[in-house]
Amino acid sequence: MKTLAELLRAVPDVLEIQGDAGVGIEKLCFDSRLVEPGDCFVAIRGVQADGHQFIDKAVEKGAVAIVCETNATEKPESVQALVRVANSAEALGHMAAAQADFPSAKMQVVGITGTNGKTTTSTLLHDLFSAMNQKVGMIGTVENRIGPERVPSTHTTPDAVGLQQLLRQMADAGCTHVFMETSSHAIDQRRIAGVTFAGAVFTNLTHDHLDYHQTFAAYRDAKKRLFDSLPNSAFALINVDDKNGMFMVQNCKAKTHTYGLKRPADFKAKILENGLSGLHLELDGAALHARMIGEFNAYNLTAVYGVARLLGTEKMQTLTLLSALRGAEGRFEAIAHPTKPECIAIVDYAHTPDALEQVLETILKLKKRQSKVITVVGCGGDRDKTKRPLMAREAARRSDQLILTSDNPRTEDPAAILRDMESGLDNTDLTKTLIIENREQAIKTACRFAGPGDVILVAGKGHEKYQEINGVKYPFDDKAILKMYFAE
């Protein structure tokens, strides 16, 4: 057991300590409902609640120490120590790292941030280094991995305490590298405080999460904070073709490297062939045949190659192993129709206007001229409403048939979400649009419409195995539904 004083040594901005910091701490809690005798309660100002309002509850449940931000709080008699800090969320991350004996410092941890490409990039890095006989950890949207072991995940980035515990498990299991999707929410909420990064990757930045960040500038600034926090021993690898790339590394202490397809870059790729069977690239002056499809995957592969080389891998071994890798589940994942020649369905997680545009543009470039594109798409409830009409418009302009349907409506009325989407369509768009609220029926209808050579895109949920309606997650798998109706 560590003392409060030992945990506080890792915190940069301790403003005041009342009482005895020598008290032993059983565990750190930021949810007063989980406090047990001997714990330290850290009062965090969250999105939906302020932990400072629950200090009394934590004291009642036996907390021996309180960490908070407010001047007004006096140390309760039953509590041995009260600590005031500048930012309690930041403090929690550093304290959690100290409690777990700073696991990230014992591994090479690389954070991957950006609107699109995080999951594919981190999955490819995990698989690449695993193929090099390294024991590798991965933290992401779909799952967490400790070597070959798969652990389901509920957030892109876990909370600060859970993250440090997971990193501790990875270090104890002998992992040498960890590749971590790093969301803007996690950065903004200081969940990655206390993580020592060996490097960070910026993929791209487009319209997303404005329900949380309110403005694009705030969203961009949250991403930038990851690069601002890098030590000078780390590397920063940025997509130089994205207009926000160089902004990310302004005032960054880490050594900056670039990758891209269009502008001069440290790691540059050129697409030689792009078809439904895969990509043929010239990457860093050498040929690479990859099983993945589309320009966006050319960017992902180039980022992965850049990270690998910056972590010390050998060039030709890296290219050889990259050519054998497949992408992440639910990311431009193709399913062939068993009886209709050259009819395929694509399952993709695209849930932003830009991601949807990229996926559809890729399909349009690869399909045969006479083939139809049938798109099934919805928008999530309790999320950024401004992107709903944009999503529908992007889909309509690039599809021969559009079916608007439910995604994860959460607590919203699915019909209201569909009306928001429909508002982005003009009369021409509406002539080729169906609205089918039931997602399974929408997919079934698309399968019935599709003929030989046609391409169905089912967008928005990708890898997810559920549909969230009014707080309940019902089993639902786009890929399984497609296969079922393809088999009819």
Note down, in words, how this protein is organized.
The protein has three domains: 98 residues, Udp-n-acetylmuramoylalanyl-d-glutamate--2,6- Diaminopimelate Ligase, Chain: A, domain 1, CATH 3.40.1390.10; 220 residues, UDP-N-acetylmuramoyl-L-alanine:D-glutamate ligase (3-Layer(aba) Sandwich), CATH 3.40.1190; 154 residues, Mur ligase, C-terminal domain (Protein-Tyrosine Phosphatase, Chain A, Alpha-Beta Complex), CATH 3.90.190. The strands form five sheets. The protein has an eleven-stranded mixed β-sheet with strand order 11-10-9-12-8-13-14-15-16-17-18, sandwiched between helices. A six-stranded mixed β-sheet has the order 19-20-24-21-22-23, with helices on both faces. It has a five-stranded mixed β-sheet with strand order 2-7-6-5-4. It is globular. The protein has 488 residues and is an alpha/beta fold.
Any low-confidence stretches, pLDDT <50, length ≥5? none
CATH superfamily of the largest domain: Mur-like, catalytic domain
- The CATH class of the largest domain is Alpha Beta
CATH architecture title of the largest domain:
3-Layer(aba) Sandwich
Oligomer: single chain
- Quote the CATH topology of the largest domain: UDP-N-acetylmuramoyl-L-alanine:D-glutamate ligase
Characteristic key phrases:
single chain, 3 domains, 17 helices, 26 strands, Udp-n-acetylmuramoylalanyl-d-glutamate--2,6- Diaminopimelate Ligase, Chain: A, domain 1, 488 residues, 24% strand, UDP-N-acetylmuramoyl-L-alanine:D-glutamate ligase, 6-stranded mixed beta sheet, 11-stranded mixed beta sheet, alpha/beta, Protein-Tyrosine Phosphatase, Chain A
